[in-house]
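Technical annex, item 7. During the second reporting period the consortium partners agreed on a shared format for inverse folding records so that results from different sites could be compared directly. Each record opens with the tokenized structure and is followed by the designed sequence. A conforming record, contributed by the partner at site C, is shown below for reference.
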């Protein structure tokens, strides 16, 4: 198993836009495996590369017994229908707040080998795909909340065991090393 530490709220990598994947190689397949193993170990519905400290546009998902991943996702929405329900994040453990998302989404991208894929999601899968794609753009679900929801989320964060205002967030070194995929990070 290749479970990796997950970056927590306050880590700057979670607020950075991820780069397009250009090399579909062994390193990318290792990243996909790490994402999938970590997500499954934590019991999450999804996990994006920035949550492991890697600034690349890839995420894994596990929704309704469908486990997979998508590289360089581009989203489109077939309609305007919305859903509103509890949403959480492995980078903000224990915090769940009702968040509005689109009910239906189409994600087009690639698998780990560079083959084109298309994922059509509704309900929880649509929520997961939107949430993880937001991570690739440096957006957290907290940014999608109204003022009352954000206030509630921040209250939960400040009360959590993992959050400490007296010390800055710990920024760990990526387990994938500097210069992975030629990024020089």
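Designed sequence (site C submission):
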């Amino acid at each position: 198993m290749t479970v990796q530490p997950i970056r927590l709220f306050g880590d700057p990598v979670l607020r950075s836009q991820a780069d397009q994947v250009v090399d579909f190689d062994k390193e990318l397949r290792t990243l996909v495996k790490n994402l999938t193993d970590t997500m499954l170990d934590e019991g999450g519905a999804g996990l994006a590369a920035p949550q492991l400290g890697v600034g690349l546009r890839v995420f894994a998902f596990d929704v309704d017994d469908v486990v997979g991943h998508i590289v360089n996702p581009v989203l489109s929405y077939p309609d305007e229908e919305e859903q509103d329900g509890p949403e959480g994040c492995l980078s903000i453990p224990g915090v769940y707040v009702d968040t509005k998302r689109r009910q239906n989404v189409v994600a087009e991208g690639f698998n780990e080998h560079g083959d084109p894929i298309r994922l059509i999601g509704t309900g929880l899968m649509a929520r997961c795909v939107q949430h993880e794609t937001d991570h690739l753009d440096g957006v957290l679900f907290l940014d999608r909340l109204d003022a009352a929801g954000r206030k509630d989320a921040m209250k939960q964060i400040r009360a959590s065991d993992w959050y400490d205002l007296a010390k800055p967030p710990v920024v760990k070194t990526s387990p994938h090393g500097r210069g992975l995929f030629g990024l020089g990070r």
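The radius of gyration is 16 Å. Residues 65 and 129 are 15 Å apart (CA to CA). All partners now use this format for quarterly exchanges.
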